Each structure stands twice: as structure tokens, then as C-alpha cells.
Amino acid sequence: MIKKLFRRIFLKPKWHNLRRLTPISRQFGFDRGTPIDRIYIEDFLSKNSELITGVVCEVADNTYSKKFGSNITKYEILYVDNSNSSATIVGDLTKLETLPGNKIDCFICTQTLNFIYDFRSAILGVHHMLKDGGTALITVAGISQISRYDMDHWGDYWRFTDLSMKQSFGEIFGDKVEVRTYGNVMSTTA
Known about the structure:
alpha/beta; five-stranded parallel beta sheet; 7 helices; 32% helix; 17% strand; globular
């Protein structure tokens, strides 16, 4: 905590030097406070909080469903293997046979599809888990540094555009897809 505060106060980025070839932070900003993508993710979830109700499933933990949800009848946590003791659903989004069907009212999937090679099958997996009328709240990175941790553990494959998300989700969800973009050149540089 003190280390982060020191870095934020005394080791400020030199914004006039935008020609640098290395990121200001290799930890996506966690070492300096809140990473910029988390600000955007939380803004998106906050603006859609009325949809986070009923049976809510989140990847890896239930931090956002607890923070932004209301009238939640059940929290589900999806994880790909048994290494996460909090997981209530052990399954792979790319393998429908490992996922419960028609069970979830709201699926929160933040910054995950970038790390799934077969992301189209993962979109099918999200659709499979949702009840009729259910909602998927998905965030992905557009312009971002490679996550070495994720690259070494399961891969870091994709960066998406608003058009690629609209088309990829539209193939499965039809015309019910809404895409919003966040960020700018300055946040990308950060």
C-alpha cells in the first residue's frame, strides 16, 4: 500500500515522453493503483447493474456480481478446472458438454475472451448457459499489452474491435447485441 502510494506520488509517468517503447507498468497499473481497464469495466457494469439479478454467473470469482448486482438469488462461479475452490461450476466455455444449459440469468465475463483461442465456441458456451431472456455482460481488450502471465498459463490470443464483437456475438445472439467502446489514445498509452 505504501509502495503504491509512493509510486503514484513521486514516480509519476512522464506524459511528455510518448515515444517510449515499454509500458509505464508491466503489471497493467496494479502497482500504481487501479488499472485503467478496471475503471472502464466498473463503469460498464455500473451502467448495466439493473441486469445483474437472479442467478448470476461470473468467471473465476463473484467480485463484480456482489458489487453491482441486486436481487441475486444465486451466485455461480465458473472456472475451467478444480484448482479454484470457490468454483460452483467447473467447465470450459468452449465445450458445451461441460456447462449447464439454460441456467443463468446474467453472465459476467470480464477480460476473458482474449485468452481463449476458440472464442467463437466460448460465445456459444455463454449462450448455452443463459436462460431465455438472459443477459451476457462481456468485456474484452482492444488495444492492450500482452499479459505474460496469461500467455504462459493458457495463452493470450486476441484483441477485438467493436465490429468484431458485434459480428461474433451477432452470429449467435442475433440482433440483440449492443456494443460500447471505452478508452482513447491516452488510456492506451497508460
